[in-house]
Amino acid sequence: MDSVPSTFIEASCVTMGRQSINDLHNLRNPRWSRIGENVRNRRSDWGLIMAIDYDDKLQFLFHNSDEIDKVVSFEEFLKTDRRFFRIGGVDLDDIDDVLVQPTNGSDLPWTALDTPAKILGLMDFMISRLDYGNLPYLAIAEIHEKSKIHEILIETLSSKIDLTFLKMPFFGDESVKFVQEQIRSDKLWELKLLDFENEEDILPDLNDLLSQSQLEALDLSESNIVFEKDSVLAFLNHWLSCSNETRLQNLAIKISSEIPLACGKVLFCPSQNQIRYLDINVGPGNLVEIFFHACVYLSCRIKATYGELREATTELQI
Fold first, then answer.
1. pLDDT tens track for 8-29
2. Is 195 exposed, middle or buried (0-12, 13-18, 19+ CB in 10 A)?
3. Which of 105, 203, 220, 251 lies in the 20 to 30 Å Cα band around 34?
4. Which of the pair, 262 or 295, is modelled with greater confidence?
């Protein structure tokens, strides 16, 4: 288990709070015992599960609050009553991980997934267990173009898995209502992959969008925009300058229904869990954290590492 993973994966950090990101970035050449110790000590409802592809060998690691204690098959895992999952990830230097956790309880064991087939199987499993009150969250981003996982995802996604890139507001009861209506109308799952290689295919950056007068209805549905780090920071500053709480709560960034697949990046974010996370009283103390998550929600269009984006939001003065 000490070998370096053979597959490069870096996935979105949307579900992680600031402390969990710090915990993970502080790990170097992690081993399961150290990972488990850091995760257990974090005491966060937004817990993470390490899943590393060790030389393409199937490993499912369960651990409880005391120790890593069980290896099971994927079939055994699917038979358990762990219905809804988040997948995210973070670059750990020379080791890159896929992270998974059940979302219906913080006391459930951690689980490791480590092959393309198992990740796709989990995606199917998540979709099959949809519930009005519990949307799964799934994000896989920046998968190395030459990796086996990338090949399987590209080959499989359009034919096997339909996902909708939801256009939803970020705040309040209307967000929940919108998602519930999407589910009931059976419009939730749809995916269209785009692949652009040339600069001509990248539409004007976020600075151009900032000139629009109606930020409350910033519609990216017809755009495939790659945001530069400085543009993201400019938008953060502009957004945070809106002092009117009503305007903040009404700000609805409508996410594109067409997902750019540039450099192997794919992002899926149908998530009522995220709505719950952002459905809080808007105040100066939490605006940076809220909008960091909103930006990572658009992470397939951001030319900045998650660390750079986190650093940029941390530097903001409110």
1. 222 222 222 223 333 333 333 2
2. exposed
3. 105
4. 295
Domain limits for position 121? 1-161
Domain count, the chain: 1
Residue 260 lies in a domain: no
pTM of the model: 0.19
Residue 306: Cβ within 10 Å count: 26
pLDDT of 266: 23
Could you read off the pLDDT of 31-66 as tens digits, one per residue?
Answer: 323 333 333 333 222 222 333 333 332 233 332 223
Q: From its phi and psi, is residue 167 left (phi > 0), alpha (psi between -120 and 50) or beta?
A: beta
Note whether residue 254 is domain-resident. Answer: no
Between helix 229-240 and helix 287-297 the angle, nearest 10°, is: 140
Distance CA 52, CA 35 (A): 12
Confidence band for 187, pLDDT divided at 50, 70 and 90: very low
Pairing mode, strands 302-303 and 227-228: parallel
- Asked if residue 80 is part of any domain, the answer here is yes
The answer to the question of residue 187 being in a domain is no
Query: For 247-294, what is each residue's pLDDT tens digit?
Result: 333 332 322 222 222 212 222 222 322 222 222 233 333 333 334 344
Amino acid at 47: G
